[in-house]
Amino acid sequence: MRGKADSDLVRRQNRHIVLEALRSYGPMARVDLGKMTGLSPASITTITTQLIGEKVMLELDEAPDRSDPSRRGRPTTRVNLNPFAARIIALKISISGLELVLVDFSGEIITRKKVSLATYEMGADEFNRHTLHIIQTFLDENKLEAEDVAHIGVAAQGVTDSVLGTIAWSPAFKQRNIPVVGPIEQKFGVRCTIANDANMIAEGVMAADGYSYDGTAAVVFMGYGVGMGLVIDGKVYHGATGAAAEFGHMNHIPNGASCRCSRAGCLEAYASDYGILRSAENRSDQSPPPSSAVDPAVMLALENAARGGDIDAAAAYAKAGRAIGFGLARMIALLNPDRIVLAGPGTRALDLIEPALRAAIEEGVVEALRAQVKIETAPINTDMIVTGTIAATLRYLDSTVFSNGPMKLQVESLL
Amino acid sequence: MRGKADSDLVRRQNRHIVLEALRSYGPMARVDLGKMTGLSPASITTITTQLIGEKVMLELDEAPDRSDPSRRGRPTTRVNLNPFAARIIALKISISGLELVLVDFSGEIITRKKVSLATYEMGADEFNRHTLHIIQTFLDENKLEAEDVAHIGVAAQGVTDSVLGTIAWSPAFKQRNIPVVGPIEQKFGVRCTIANDANMIAEGVMAADGYSYDGTAAVVFMGYGVGMGLVIDGKVYHGATGAAAEFGHMNHIPNGASCRCSRAGCLEAYASDYGILRSAENRSDQSPPPSSAVDPAVMLALENAARGGDIDAAAAYAKAGRAIGFGLARMIALLNPDRIVLAGPGTRALDLIEPALRAAIEEGVVEALRAQVKIETAPINTDMIVTGTIAATLRYLDSTVFSNGPMKLQVESLL
DNA sequence: TAATTTAATTTGACGTCTAAAATAATGTTG
DNA sequence: CAACATTATTTTAGACGTCAAATTAAATTA
After folding, report:
1. Angle, nearest 10°, between helix axes B311-335 and B350-364?
2. Which of A23-27, A101-105, B406-410 is the least confident region?
3. Which residues of A262-290 are buried (b: 16+ CB within 10 A; e: fewer)?
4. Which residues contact residue A159 at a Cβ distance below 8 angstroms, ignoring those fewer than 6 apart?
5. What is the mean pLDDT of chain B?
6. Which residues, 6+ apart, have CB-to-CB distance to B260 below 8 Å?
7. Cα separation, B258 vs B99, whole angstroms
8. Is the distance from CB of A131 to CB of A124 less than 8 angstroms?
């Protein structure tokens, strides 16, 4: 149960839904904000006036829209989030290196930059030395001081701990429990949060339809690894420590194929790029997984071989599909979602995977449970991890900082 | 995102938390309500005055508390939920029949009654004819009209659909998709809801500590079947159609042991009473499961045999533990909970099950994920299903009916 | 009996919302 | 082109709910 309600809560909540409407649907007129949020025109006036006064919002200076000639009356003036209200950095840490994206408050990308970094053999200290330097350089290149940045949102591949601010385990690192948030906050004095990359994909998918979805969905990522982002009652679910939905390392077969995480039988060991490749090449399930990503060209060739009649390759994809299908069946039994979204480069081979996947779901879970669930595919080309990290970070800022209103001056001390 | 906020929301929310405080902690003084809810004494006065006026609450007429002789000042007068504000019926449908419990608004049980009913062979119509008659008799016995009952909360064993108000699949019925809510609402004109029994156990566990827990927990029921209630961010999670957490029918081994649900490899086929018995008797995993519950005495004997050195029996319990352990490992990978509660008669044999269970969890999920989770055992004797159903139903009434305030009179039509 | 202590209510101010009225900015029409 | 119509936005006045502070209530203590 949430706590007590008072006029403070009312103000925060209503400011929040106004910001959220602009965040999801872009610039709009005050009337439309009213329709969107259910607030009266009077309240919208009050709220927008305040937000504009705080420089969080601005009135767009544009010529009236004449596209509909039958339109009468006073023309609208649209308002939008003020791009200069804040800047954030989204930082993606993956097996191939770092990606930095500088974004303004309205969500517009200002610059982005990729830096490859061979992280696997690095210890935590060395990694952080590099990372902090790369961030500093990125700031310098954009003529920014650290205090110009309101938040740094990190998305990392693997198991992240959002409470400790660490990467608990990742295929990009030999070492475990690498602190990330601490060093960044310490060096730059900027608030920082970390999340799992698959959760950020889920965030991206939700952002794509304006966070209008409010059911339970699972977003599956297939590629160099297998991940999942869970959306529960419309909100991306993070679990006790932000490490929820480690679908790739959910056990498929007890004592089964060996996985990068040094365990046996994980789903990923059957359905990731390297798992599929291993099966296709008829190597034993127990043969050790590689420490680096499989070359995408190799996977492309394998797909085509499977389509061209290579029986071993086709069987490898079917095996992957069966593994994912059983994983989904188990997930469905637990969570009874209404939607499953398949995403990531692995969906390119969906034609090869899907029959076995669907058969496994049918085999693995009662009809009553799976009948409702819709399976969709998300576009694979867009960089959902970055998009999602940006959306999540900005939404977080909206709710924590900008919904509250301006700092109250502490005048008492003057008396 | 929730909708807009206004003074209406404020009133509902604050009335709600006041009701909730009394619901969880019982009668208390207005001062304490203030401390509990964070509301000012003035607001508490306003709210309690209104609730008392609406006969939802009442002031207790009791002698001042003299237990602490050093206590000075005006004595408190405690208030409580008015038992006569409403009555509810909790109805439990299980393989052994129906159980009806009449409860007043303060949560006090007025009467309860068990009726055994051989439901398995019944069709939906016959079952409902019996059920409606049993409810009618129960009302008559307590000299109640249907309209004296504010809500009927049903807990059923198996897969329930809270949207359609049906039992989608249950071991108590041969037939599928049995409508329950519809017939009851139609005949008695009383609002009715249905939920899965394991979810109601979870509700009971949460109620037991005053709904103060707000993390993610899984409550596992072990007995004639295997069930799970999931608590996500402090709320019992029901999924898209109320059929969440069908842990017992989550697949354990593809193409594995045959289950009552007519599928193969479900966890329940290894870890329920009949599954354990089947293994202990060295019958094949494929041999058909029984259609009725295993006699508790048989299970008790089996436990003692296992403890007394019967190797087959001990192995059966270990096999059950391993199945549950892998199921939990998979659940942990998906949901990263901080708490697992084991409940139900099956926990009596926990000594036999636990080693294999813990080993399986270790084998089945990365350390980073399982390190946080605490495994507890709930008392097995209390009837958690009924307790939980009552708690859930009353809380539902609190939030839907009694938080709103009295009906507004529609005076306009008089003009 | 008067002072003290704690509980509960009353009073007056404050913040936010809303409906209705007023104002603003445009198009339409005779 | 002036008056009217239309749509957007702001202003005004009133409603509702909270809270701090003052007041009243009901007990104990001295």
Report:
1. 40
2. B406-410
3. ebbbbbbbbbbbbbbbbbbeeeebeeebe
4. A167, A168, A169, A170, A196, A243, A246, A249, B366, B368, B369
5. 91
6. B171, B225, B268, B269, B274, B289, B291
7. 30
8. no
CB B55 within 8 A of CB B31: no
Closest nt to A43 (CA→C1')? C17
Query: Which residues 6+ apart lie within 8 Å of A134 measured at CB?
Result: A98, A100, A115, A117
Q: Kindly state the percentage of chain B with pLDDT values over 90.
A: 74
Mutate to test the interface with B, among A251, A261, A395 (most CBs of B within 10 A): A251
* Torsion sign over Cα A247, A252, A254, A258: negative
A375 beta partners: A340
| pLDDT tens sequence across A25-77 | 999 999 999 999 999 999 999 999 999 999 999 999 988 777 777 788 899 99
pLDDT at A153: 98
Q: Do B365 and A251 touch (CB under 8 A)?
A: yes
The pairing of strands A235-236 and A226-232 is antiparallel
Angle among Cα A353, A357, A358 to the nearest 5 degrees reads 125
Does B99 lie at the interface with A, CB-CB under 8 angstroms? Answer: no
Average pLDDT, chain A: 91
Residue B289, number of CB atoms within 10 A of its CB: 19
CA distance B193 to A69: 53
B 101-130: CB under 8 A from A: none
Tens of pLDDT, residue by residue over B351-399, are 999 999 999 999 988 777 788 899 999 876 668 999 999 999 999 999 9
- Is A364–B336 a contact, with Cβ atoms under 8 angstroms apart? no
Residues A158 and A242: beta-carbon distance below 8 Å: no
Q: For residue B365, give the 3-state DSSP assignment.
A: coil
Residues in chain B: 415
Cα nearest neighbour of A330 on chain B: B250
CB contact (8 A) between residue B13 and residue A7? no
DSSP secondary structure of B186-214: HHH---EEEEEHHHHHHHHHHHHTTT---
Predicted TM-score of the model (pTM): 0.88
pLDDT digits (tens, 9 = 90+) for B153-167: 999 988 899 999 999
Output the six-digit token pair for A244. Answer: 């929820």
DSSP SS3 for B56: coil
